[in-house]
Amino acid sequence: MKDFPFLSILTALPLVGAAVVAFIPRTKAELAKIVALGWSLAVLVLSAVMWGAFTIGGDRFQFRESYAWIPSWDARLTFAADGIALVMLLLIAILFPVVILASWHDVDQSTRSAPAYFALLLAFEFTMIGVFAAADVFLFYVFFEIMLIPMYFIIGSFGSGQKQYAAVKFFLYSLVGGLFMLASVIGLWALGGHTFDFAELVKGTAQIDQNTARWLFLGFFVAFAIKAPFFPFHTWLPDSGGAAPAGAAALLVGVMDKVGTFGILRYCLSLFPEASRWFAPAAMVLAVIGIIYAALLAVGQNDLKRLVSYTSIAHFGFIGIGIFAFTTQAGTGAVLYMVNHGLATGLLFIVVGMFVARRGSALVSDFGGAGKLMPVLAGVLFFAGLASLALPGTAPFVSEFLVLIGTFSTHKGYAVVATLGIVLAAAYVLWMIQRTTQGTLNPALTEVPAMSKDITLREKAVVAPLILLLLVLGFYPKPVTDVINPAVQATMQDVGANDPVPAVEAGGKVGG
Amino acid sequence: MESLQLPPIDYGALLPMLILFGAACLGVVAEVVTPQRARNAVQLGLALVAVVAALAAVVWQRGTRTVTIGGAVAVDGPTLFLQGSILVLGGVSLLLIGERSIEKGGAFVSQAAVTVGSQKDLQQAGGRPGATEVYPLTVFALGGMLLFVAANDLLTMFVALEVFSLPLYLLCALARRRRLLSQEAALKYFLLGSYASAFFLFGVAFVYGYAGGIQLEVVHEAVANPQRSEVLLYVGLAMVAIGLLFKAALAPFHVWTPDVYQGAPTPITAFMAACTKVAAFGALLRILYVAFEGVRWSFQPILGTIAVLTMFIGAVLAVTQTDLKRLLAYSSIANAGYLLVGVLALNEEGLSGTMFYLVAYGFSVLAAFAIISLVRDADGEATHLSRWAGIGRKSPLLAGVFTFILLTFAGIPLTSGFTSKFAVFGAAVEGGQTWLVIFGVITSMLLAFPYLRVVVLMWLSEPGESAPTVSIPGFLTSAVLGIGVIVTVALGVVPAPLIDLTREASEFVR
Questions:
Q1: What distance in Å separates the CA atoms of residue B472 and residue A5, rounded to the nearest whole number?
Q2: Spatial distance between the Cα atoms of B4 and B379, rounded to a whole number of angstroms
Q3: Is the keyword Amino-acid biosynthesis in the record (chain A) (predicted)?
C-alpha cells in the first residue's frame, strides 16, 4: 500500500477530469456538473485511502515519488507529504466536492459556459493538490504560479461586481509575489548546491552566508505573505473574495491562501532557520496588526463577501503568530487552524453565497430579519458564524486556543493583544448575523420570492458534511493533531527552536 | 612577387550557407523563367526545400569544430546550433510569408515603387498577386544570418551583416496595406541600420589598429597581451558593440523597433523578431566570448547597465501602447534585455541559456504575429488594442491561443517563457550578476501588466460596435500556429532535451 504512487495520481487525476469536463459541450451543462462532482469525489476517496495508509510516527515525509524532469538543473518531479501536507490535501479533497455541489446553479443564469466553470474548478484542484504534494522547490514554484490562471478566469469570467478589476489585482499581486520568490529560488539553486530537492536543500542552505540567506528568506516570505495574505499585503483579498462566485471564494480563502502559511512553515522555516528567527519579531508584529486591523475593518463592512474576506485576514494573523511563536504547541495549533479555518470560513462563504444568490445582492443592508423567512438557513449561518468566531465546541476553538497558549509561553505580549481579536471576532460575526437574519423583517425581502425558499436538499447536502466535521473536530481533534504534531516538531527542530519547559509549577525557577 | 595561395576550404562546413545562397540565386532566375501563375508556389517550394536542405547539412555537420577559409568562418557547437535555430525559425516564417488565403494576393504588394494613393496603388491593393521576390530576398537574408553567426573575423561579420540587412530593409517596404507606414518603416530601418553598420565598420578599424588583425583569436591574444593603447581597444569594442546592439534592438539603440515592427508586413515582422534576434545575439555571443572575454570586467558593467535600461524601457513603454504590433515590439525589446542578461553571465550556462531563450522566444513570437495577421477588418489587420475587445466570445480558440502566448511572454511556468527566463537568470546568478537578475525580476512584474491587459480585453470586455472579423487561418498559418504553440508547450513542460542540446553545443572554437 505504501508503494502505491498516491501523490502523483492524486495530482494528475483532477487535471484529467478538467480536460474531460472542458470537452463536454455547453448544451450538456448538467452532465458536466455530474462528471465534475463524480471526479472530485473520486479524488476524495483516493485521498481518504491515502490518509489510511499514512503511518503516524513514521518517516517525516511519506509516499515519496521522484521522476527525472530537467536533469541539467536537477529539477525533478518529486512528490512527498508530511503530516502538514497530508491534512491540507484531505481538506482540499473534502472542500472541492462540497463547493462543486454548492455552485450547482451558479452559472445557470449567466451567458458563460457551465462546463468551462467546472473544468476550471477541477483545474484549480489540480494546482492545489500539486502545490501541497510537491517536494521539489522548482515543482512547488511551478504550481505556485500556475494556480493563478484558473482562479483568474473564475473570478474574471464568472464573478460579479468589479470582477475585472478584482481579477487583475489578484493576478498581479500574486505574480509580483511569485517573481520575488523566483529570484530567491534561483539564488537558492545557485548557492544551495544546484539542486531543488527539498531534503538536499535543507542541508545545502546551511552553507549560505547569513546575510544572503536573509535576502532569500525575504523573497519567499513576501510571496507567501501576499498569498496568505498578511497585513499589509492583504488588499487584494477583499476585492477578490467580494467579486468571486461564493464557492470559488470559499476555495480562495479556504485552500489557496493556505499555500502562503504552508509555504512559510515548509520552506521559510526549514530552509532558512537563522533568517526565520531573525525576522520572527517582525512577522509577529505584522500578524498581530493583521488580527486587529482586519477585524476592525470586518466590523465596518456592509458587503457580506468582503466581510468574510476580512475575517479571513484576521484569522491568518492567528496562524501567523502560531507559526512564528516557534513552539510545537503553537505550530500544531497553527496547522490545525489552517484546517479548521478552511472548514469554517468555507462554510461561512458557502452559506453567505446561498443568501446572496437568493437576494441578488451581497449588501448587509439589503437583508434584515431574513431568519423569519428562512429559519433553517439562518440557523446554518448562525452556526457558521459561531464556528468562525471559535466558539468552544466547534473545531476552530481548539486551534485558536492552542495557538494562544502556545504563543503565550514564549511571547506573552503578542498573545494578550491577539486575544483582543477574539472579542472583535464576536463583534463582527454577531453584528453581521443580527443585521441580516435577526430583528424586524426588511419589507423589501418579502418582494423577492426566492427569499422565502428555505434550505433545499442540495444545500443541506452541501453544509451537512462541513457542520459535522466542525463538530467532530471540535470535540475530538486527536486524529488530526496526531498527524500534524510530528511534522511540526520536525519543522521546529529545523528552525532550531526549543519548546519552553512548562513553567506551571516551577515557582522560583522562573524569571531568575 | 609572392603568389596568392588559396586557403584550404572545408566545403562541408560551409554547405548550409552555400545551399542558401545558391537557392537564392536560383530564386532570382526562377522569377524570370516561371509563368506568373505558378511563380508563388515554385518560389515558396524552392525556398522551403533550400531551408530543409541547409538544415540537413547543419545536422550532418554536427560535432564539427573547425575554422576554415583562412580563419574567416568558424563552425563549432554554437555556430551549428544557432544556424539550425535560424533555419528552423526561418522555415516557419516562410510559411507565414507564403500565406495567400487570408488576404487576396497575400500580405505583400506587387510593386513597392508605385506612388502611395495613386490609381495604380489602389489597384494593386485590391488583390493583385504580391511580389514573389520576397522569397529569394528572405533566403538571402537567411544565408547572411547563417554567415553572421559563423563569422570568425570582423570583416566577414560586417559583410554578413550587410547581406542579411539589405534584404530586410527591402522586405519592410512591401506591406500591401498602410503603404506609407511601411515605407516609413523601411526608410527608418535603412537609415539607422546604415549608421549602425558604419559604426561597426569604424569600430573594426580601431580594433584592427589595436590588435593588428581582425580575426577573433588575434583580437583575443592582443587583449591577453596588450601592446598598444587600450583606448583603441575600448573605442573599437564600443563601436562594434553599437552595431550589434542596434540589430539586437537594445536600448538606447532600440528606437527603430516599434516603427519597423508596426510598419513592416506582419510575416516580415515575425521573421525579424525571431531570426534577426538569433543572428544578432549569436554574433554578440561570439564576439564577447571569443574575442573580448579578456576585458570582461570592463564591458560587463556597461553592457549590464544597457541590459537594465533595455528591460525597463521595453517594459514601461509596453504598458503605454495601444497598438498590438507596437506592444509586441516593446515586449521584444524587453526580451532582448533578458537575453543580454544571459549573455553577460559569460559562462557556459549563460551561453546555453541564451541559445535556449532565442529558440523558445522565436517560436512564441512567430505564433503571436501569426495570430495578429488573422484579426482583420476592411483596412487589413486590426491591430489597435480596442478592436480586440471581447474577441474571446466570438473566437475562443484564437483568443485561447493568444492568451497562452501572452502568458508565455509573461513567464508563467509550464511555458517556454518561464524555462528560458529561468535558464538565463540562473546563469547570471552563477556568473555573479545577481543585480541583473533582480532588475530582470522587477521588470518582469511590470511587463506582466500589458500582457494581462490584452488578456482582460479579449475575455472580460464586451465586444465593441464594429468588431473585426477573425479570418479562418489558411493551412500555412495554421501550421505556424500549431508549431509555435506545440514548441512553446513542449519547451515549458519537457525542456530537458533542448537544454541538453544547448549544453553540448556551448563551446566556441577559437
A1: 45
A2: 59
A3: no
Residue A508 lies in a domain: no
Task: Please tell me the distance from the alpha carbon of residue B294 to that of residue A167, in angstroms, as a whole number.
Answer: 50
Residue B362 lies in a domain: yes
Q: Residue A435 sits in which domain range?
A: 6-499
**Residue A176's closest CA among B445, B405, B267?**
B445
Out of A153, A172, A180, closest to residue B449 by CB: A172
With respect to residue A131, please indicate whether it lies within any of the assigned structural domains.
yes
- A230 assigned to some structural domain: yes
Which domain does B363 fall in, by range?
11-504
Give the number of domains in chain A.
Answer: 1
Q: Which of B460, B494, B498 to mutate to test the interface with A (most CBs of A within 10 A)?
A: B460
In a domain, B239, yes or no: yes
- Kindly state whether residue B260 falls inside one of the protein's structural domains: yes
Mean pLDDT to the nearest integer, B309-335: 95
ipTM of this predicted structure? 0.91
Name the nearest CA neighbour of A369 among A310, A317, A319, A438: A438
Q: What residues in B contact A148, CB-CB < 8 Å?
A: 412
Look at the pTM and tell me if it is higher than 0.90: yes
Q: What total number of domains does chain B contain?
A: 1
- Give the dihedral sign, CA A369/A375/A381/A385: positive
- B496, A72: Cβ pair inside 8 Å? yes
CA separation (Å) from B390 to A153, B399, B489?
14, 9, 25
Residue-wise pLDDT for B192-209, tens only, equals 999 999 999 999 999 999
What is the rounded (10 degree) CA torsion for A294, A295, A301, A305? Answer: 80
Backbone φ/ψ region at B414: left (φ over 0), alpha (ψ -120 to 50), beta: left
Chain B interface mutation, best of A23, A164, A182, A196, highest count of B Cβ atoms under 10 Å = A182
Does some domain include residue A509? no
Check residue A506 and give its pLDDT.
43
In-domain check, residue B509: no
